[in-house]
Amino acid sequence: MAISLIIVLSYMPLSSVTEAAAATTTTAIGTSATTMTPIKHLIVIFQENISFDHYFGTYPHAANPDGQPNFIASANNNTSVDIDNLITSSRLSDNPNLVKPFRLDRPQAVTNDNNHTYTGEQKKYDGGKMDRFIQENKVTPNYLAPAQCTNIEPGLYQNPRACFNPAQVMGYYDGNTVTALWNYAQHFDMSDSYYQTNYGHSTPGHINLVSGQTHGAIPGNLTKQAYTSQGTIIGNPDPIYDDCSLSAQDTFFVPYFKDPLPNAFPPAIEMTGKNIGDLLNAKKITWGWFSAGFKPTQDTKSLINCSSVMHDNGYGVKTHDYYANIEPFQYYKSTANPHHLAPTSLTMIGHTDHANHQYDLSDFWAAAEASNLPAVSFLKAPSYQQAHAGYSGPLLEQTFLVDTINRIQKLPEWNSTAVIITYDDSDGWYDHVMPPLVSTSSDPIFDALFGQQGLCGHSQPTDVYQDRCGYGPRLILLAISPFSKPNYIDHHITDQTSIIRFIEDNWLGAQRIGDHSLDARAGSIAGMFDFNSGHKPVGNLFLDSSTGMPIK
């Protein structure tokens, strides 16, 4: 049944903090900030292109074939009935799509990329019927993908170069492949009602994470290539304030599957308006975005000194560690570091200098191990470990997540830290839940949520920006912290801007970004934590990065 109800999520104060005393964060060079919860350090690990059902569709039930990591739910795991997934919804067997959801095995941990354009995803959801995931999962020239397979029967995807099968969009992994995430979910907690703020690609997902506002793009109409429309980002343009944007050079790009088409490089744009970095700077709160591969290669002869570090995903697809269109602060002049300058000193990491809060991932660990952990940190894995279909996958991702979280749990600041694991978009992977309609749009070229061009809900006021149809697909959100509610699933409706809201509520006195940023409508993630004085801190969980199983 089509859903056209507009749900407005009103502001609610931080929950479960009545017994928690305000905490003070002291930085390495003397500035301090009061927090509204005991969390003094927030670390957001922002991964790529996974829907909720793609990883948690059968949680906590795994097939457990011989020779694979064996996931057995803990005795007190009641999520079999307390989670909205393929099993509890009966969509595993009773499904409206051309092919039913099917299990992808551990050896199938690298697949092709799906269609996850702003318009294509809306068509897949088909006004709430959720029945066109295969028909709308078309190969597009932007992906430089292989030829389409001659049938749509589920098959093996061990070689992503072989052919593109649109039915792969119905595939899901279970706890024998995404083992670490399942273990984190039952030891700490997760949400089953967390959504991408808008439909579409990676860049809008990153921009929403830091500003809640995909409008304000200059140039504002790149509709021929489906990058921007009416001043709003709907595709993956590059940031103008980054020397390593693909548009700035034609030697940095490594083909996805074959040689790039002529003029295939994306345009560069600027974003106007404020982001969460601007708000943190105004309050002198330490923060940073830390990307693998951000540090320039020092011995290059190129005029553009970008990192040449690359990795192979094991199937012959080789990518650079860093790509500029998933570094959101580089789109804003106020928070950009165009030349990838290093911080002036170790003690200045998190503070404002010519690095301008944009760093290499190695700088995060240097600061953390020098007791200079910023209050707010965003971590970006190298591209081959981001989980993005086509050049990454769940096993490559697991190595990064486990190594990172094992290391964070050993820091002296762990007792006042929360780690968020979440994703920028769904990659178009099937999820059975129709998202709530919070932000409507009526672009006759790009909107098609309700079965016809130009319709994403009812008309909206003229002062509300177009091309922000959302919420988009349901994504994954895990909260890993001593303050997590163990083995708990949060059902409150939240989205990517809920992370901004938590930062705003915890450090900034509930200040909002403004100008129709969707942080003003965001639900709170505070319900995933227990800040009461009687809460027993959740113990550490150290995992094996190859198996995802607890280390004994």
Spell out the blueprint of helices and strands.
Blueprint: E1 23-26, E2 32-35, E3 41-47, H1 52-56, E4 102-103, H2 118-125, E5 171-172, H3 179-187, E6 189-191, E7 194-195, H4 202-211, E8 217-218, E9 228-229, E10 232-233, E11 238-239, E12 268-271, H5 276-282, E13 287-291, E14 310-312, E15 318-320, E16 358-360, H6 361-368, E17 376-380, H7 394-408, E18 417-423, E19 477-480, E20 488-490, E21 494-495, H8 497-507
Helix pairs in contact: 4-8
Q: How is this structure best described in words?
A:
This protein is α/β, with parallel strands linked by helices and 552 residues long. The chain has a single domain, classed as Alkaline Phosphatase, subunit A. The chain is 13% helix and 13% strand. The chain has an eight-stranded mixed β-sheet with strand order 16-13-17-3-18-19-6-20, sandwiched between helices. Strands 8-12-11 form a three-stranded mixed β-sheet, with no helix packed on it. It has a two-stranded antiparallel ribbon with strand order 1-2. The longest helix has 15 residues, at 394-408. The protein is globular, with a radius of gyration of 22 Å. The model is unreliable at 1-13, 15-22, 25-31, 250-262 and 299-303 (pLDDT under 50).
Record keyword descriptors for this entry:
552 residues; alpha/beta; 8-stranded mixed β-sheet; 3-stranded mixed β-sheet; 8 helices; 21 strands; 13% helix
